[in-house]
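Table S5 (text form). Sequence records supplied for joint modeling of the two-component complex.
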Amino acid sequence: MGIFKKLGWFFKAEKKRYIWGLIFLLLADLAGLIPPRVIGILADKMGNKQLTLSLLAEWLVLLAMAAIIQYLSRFGWRTMIWGGAATLEREMRSRLFAFFLKMDATFFQKHRTGDLMAHATNDLNAIQNVAGAGILTLADSILTGSTTIIAMLIFVDWRLTLMAILPMPLLAIMARVLGRHLHTAFGESQAAFSRLNDKTQESISGIKVIKTFGQEDEDVADFDKIVDKTITINKKVYRIDSLFDPAISIIIGLTYVITIIYGGTLVVNQTITVGQLISFIAYIGALVWPMFAIGRLFNVIERGNASYDRVNELLSEKSQAVAPKVDSAPVVSGDLDYQIDRFSYPDDPRPALQQIHFKLRQGQTLGLVGRVGAGKTTIMKLLLREFDHYQGQITIGGQDIRDVPAASVLGAIGYVPQDNFLFSTTVRDNIRFAAMDQDQDAVEHAAAQSAIHDDILHFSQQYETLVGEKGVSLSGGQKQRLAISRALMVLPEILILDDALSAVDAKTEETILENLKHDRQNKTTIIAAHRLSSVMNADEILVIDNGQITERGNHQELLQRAGWYAEMWAKQQVESQLGGEQHDAE
Amino acid sequence: MTQNKEKKTKQQSDHQEPTDVTTSTSENQSVWAQSIPMKEQGQIIKRMLKFTLPFKWLFIIAILSATALSLLNVFLPRILQEFMDKYLTPSRGTTRVILGFAALYFLGVLLKAVLQFVSNYLYSVGSEKALESVRRALFSKLHTLGMRYFDLTPAGSIVSRVTNDTMSLMDFLQFFASILTGLLGIITAYFAMAALNGTGALVVLAFLPILLVAIWYYARYSSRVYRRMRERLSELNVKLNESIEGIGVIQEFRQEHRIGQEFEQTNGEYLATRKAMIHTNSLLLSSLINLLYALALTAVLAYFGLLSEHVFVEAGVIYAFTTYVQNFFNPISDMMDSLSFMQDGVVAGKRIFRILDDSTIAPQQHPDASGEITAGKIEFRHVSFAYDGEHKVLNDISFIAEPGQTIGIVGHTGSGKSSIINIMMRFYEFYEGQILIDGKDIKDYPMTELRRKMGLVLQDSFMFYGDVASNIRLFNQDITDRQIEEAAEFVQADRFINKLSRGYHARVIEGGTQFSSGERQLISFARTVVTDPKILVLDEATANIDTETESMIQEGLRRLRRGRTTIAIAHRLSTIKDAEQIIVLDAGRIVEHGTHDQLLAQKGRYYQLYQLQHGVDATAEPTA
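The corresponding structure-token record, covering 1210 residues in total, follows.
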């Protein structure tokens, strides 16, 4: 029952809705008591030949009225209570979403997208069930249960009532036990489904390998095996699921047997009439659901509670970023002074960066090169305010970036990450993602800058073309270039290309770099790259290894040093990848 | 009983509200938005039902049990009616009679329980088996499709067809079950009423037209609302999914506010459609059926009341008759409720059949193909090829590779290098020219022979879930552990494999991400070596490889090529410098052809490429 308390804030906010819902529910229950009794009375009257026309009319009017009241109040409670559940789901989903937007990279590394989605769908579903089915079954078992039993006591016979409802608690127990088994079995079935899903996914992704080795039949056989297993597991689910109806039948059957024996005896003794017995049988029918519901209630509550706790646990996680990223503030500008003595990631004692010092005057370009995992991206992350707990300081225009809102810093930066993510909207809206108020000219300019404009003109609907499954599927290089134009749209003081040209061919890369140089004369650019040609024209190039600067200077200086840079340069020259450095087009 | 049933079903269906979230939900939207013409719906349903045929006995027994169950439901009230009218009303019931009736009734209940179990269980198992057979059919079909299909169709949506859409089929069969049991219940209830009192039954039947109108209206109206709701939901989940995946971008560009607002809007729209659905259901679904039931009950009682003026109406008859009225109306809201499943099922079915009917079949060999590759000579004779049948990516390609020779193919991106591999491996069908192996048309070799004798090493080495050994062996159980180890040693993959804690049985997780790209390459070399192909086709891997890996791979490649006819797409000149022939491709044509030295001497395209690659000091470097 704890979950009802935990959701107290919601029920409080929706007090009116639920009070009305309960009133309607009670009204429906009370109206529902009328037909069984009327049937019984009329049966008796007809049997005794006591039925007059006016009496008949009176009872029939009562019946019709009960029918209409039931209809209206049913409509009432359904709209109220199911609507409440839907509202709760919306509310929780909003909270989760707002929360996701606030969270930092650490959080999203810890939780995979699939898990977060599961919270936002399955868990929310379990929670909204509490506000819908949970409230309903709780109220119903109390309201319908008690009114029906009271009606049995008043209209029929108290001894018969007590005897007949004896097997009823079995319904609750059965619902609870079977429900729990079903839940476990269902979990296994879900897991089997996932396996099937993974297998299919893998076969599709690896289709070329499978074809190459002519393993189609074997792959199908493997799939068949998994399917066979799935069937076995699902059979268990159906077995349990198919037990509910028979179990209800038998338990209610017991009640009927008691009613036949004891009720029959009472009728023969003329303690009650046949009509009363008929009413009584109908009332038994009305008790089935409330009793069954008690058992189900436990399951609904249990699941809802677990889900609510899971979601709350998630919501209680704190973002590592010191300042919230949401506000807007004046943007910093000026020379970049990067003075980091030491930085290590949370939960990792080893230093990720040591003694990274450089100055970049406004308008200059910095190149960062080095092995994968050397620390290039980490250098950028500090600039992007993803972590603030480092020794040293970073200033832009003399302003320590930790002293201003994160928005002031981020507003100055156009960041193009390695894994460029595009949204499934139009090409245009992807480009002006961060500047929705910009017009077509600005968009086209940015696209031209990043050498993607001509590609876009070849798409079926040009700038209106949707990106992703429903529209054009882009090559890696096209994605990167779109991501660059997206960053250019905000006219950033500092443009950061984090290995963002890796899938672009050498010629296009040259064009883009040339455009940038021309168009961003007073703006700073930082380029991290694997391919040295990306940085060869930079004002300063830092070679990073193990979080430290091992070599620095401009292209010529570094070549003369004959160190890692020079070696890589030679290697890349000799083995420069002939049209194969990217999987663009073809 | 009606009321209870009503709440139960409603709750279940509410519980089952769509929460299926997959990456491909976005595309559901488009299909949801269109409605399918009636005739097509009928065809789809017919085809889907065909999948149940192999399991017809399960369904037949389930349906027979359901029929027996309906009859029993007619019979049980009759027992009580007998009991009331013969023994209770006249107060004649002795303890023996009473106990006898109780026992008879309980026996009926036990039988009912058994029938319920049998019909439910067998029907579900039958549906499950039918569903899985659709999955098998889909999966097998996918393996007969050509690469072109996979180029054009996102993997996510294919997976969704095999897994999610087939699930809707299950719901679809449940829809049939509820229609069937519903109709059985209605018909038997009607005859039971007619047997008791013909005119009374007609009174109930008079409500049927109203009922049909209600069902028809609900079906029409609700499917529209339902569709809107589903569209909004998938939109919502796509947004959610995308915002999580693209959170970095959103935050970096400080678009939290806008994205948050857009989400709120969609969230609100979904709530609105869901409320509309709740309204529709509350107005038209079980509440309305209940109202009609209550009114029918009133009418029936009015009729019997008037009748009792003239004839004696027994209490038991009233009991039995009113129970039948209930049985008559009971299944209807259930039936209406499952209507949405039909919608889902038809839409899913349409998508499933689109795959099953897809004619992008993988290239076929000649039916009487029986050749055997012995030497490994390859000849291209005037081969032209277009992926879309229109824009040629290969144009009049001719060359001969003698057994054991290496041919290097060089060219810009888009020059057609990969296409040569693609048609040679028979991933795509070509229609112009001829490819000969050992002097015989490539189509005259059975596919298995081609696959066995031609080894392809792909750029991206795909890893399967399993262990290292299974990734080398794949499904070929004829390959022994010894052979696997030898293959790994041969390409020198054994060095890193032996360092793994469980060696060849080290687990490989999804995508093999625990291995470096170089290590993955070596495993894929071993995979090829172990099959000992006569002909080797190489699509050289390049991107972001460090020095050590580089030398590792180069050595592996050298060993791999030994004694095999090799067609290599080169991304490094070092690989092909010593090739017997080098082909330079441009825009799908062979523009130059010769050895490294010959081509350099020509001072043409190759020379340019070579220079471009070597930068300024290429001329200074002595050529090999």
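Note: Chain A has three domains: 2-315, 323-412+492-578, 420-490.
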